Amino acid sequence: MLKGIPPLLTPDLLKVLAQMGHGDEIVIADANFTAHTLAQGPHGPKPLIHLPGASVQQVAEAVLALLPLDAAVEQPVAYMQVCAQPPGWQSAQQRSVIEMLVQGGHASAAQCQPTERFAFYDRVRQAHAIVLTGELQPYGNFLFKKGVIGEVLVP
Predict the structure, then answer these.
(1) Can you name the residues that pair with 49 across neighbouring β-strands?
(2) Hey, where are the domains in the chain?
(3) Cβ–Cβ contacts within 10 Å for residue 55, how many?
(4) Cross-sheet strand order for the sheet of 48-51
(5) Residue 2 — pLDDT band, cuts 50, 70, 90?
(6) How does residue 42 score in pLDDT terms, banded at 50, 70 and 90?
(7) Is 22 annotated as catalytic?
(8) CA 57, 147, 65, 109 torsion: positive or negative?
(9) Which of 22, 50, 106, 128 is an active site residue?
(10) Contact 76/107 with Cβ under 8 angstroms?
């Protein structure tokens, strides 16, 4: 055990987070997500971490305790848009995760981009890693773009 690190962050997940660079993306997905297929990726297999006892929100909170979001892009957070719903519609779980992001100072609601299902899959294929949770709420899939740690110097 290490002090100050959320216990949901397993050694494998900590290694993945440490290996990520600025602009790399990590997916935190629900139990229904097609993670095994998408983890194959165009450049070979990507890390796939299983956290079956945790929800998407719990894992997102733990990951974002260590991972800064990218301030250089307009929308460092993407989530899978629910099919057969109008654009902008959010499930209760999506609203809850976005509220956690806003209240935690990680992102504004405007920085969270709803993404059509197959476009979301395309982004996942390029992501650094996937974390598959035990979340049973469908469409509980989020993608986070890593930012920079440290002070940005402006000339």
Answers:
(1) 131
(2) 11-145
(3) 22
(4) 48-51, 129-133, 25-29, 142-145, 77-80, 112-115
(5) confident
(6) confident
(7) yes
(8) negative
(9) 22
(10) yes
Whole-number Å distance between alpha carbons of 50 and 134: 8
Tell which residue, 133, 149, 125, has the closest CA to residue 13: 133
Single-letter amino acid, residue 12: D
Question: Could you tell me the two tokens for 109?
Answer: 């609601």
Q: What is the pTM of this model?
A: 0.93
Pick from 115, 140, 130: nearest CA to 40: 130
pLDDT above 90: residue 152: no
Task: List the one residue out of 132, 150, 149 whose CA is nearest residue 141.
Answer: 132
76-114, pLDDT tens digit by residue?
999 999 999 987 899 999 999 999 999 999 999 999 999
- 2.40.10.240, 3.40.1650.10, 3.40.50.720, 3.90.550.10: CATH of 11-145: 3.40.1650.10
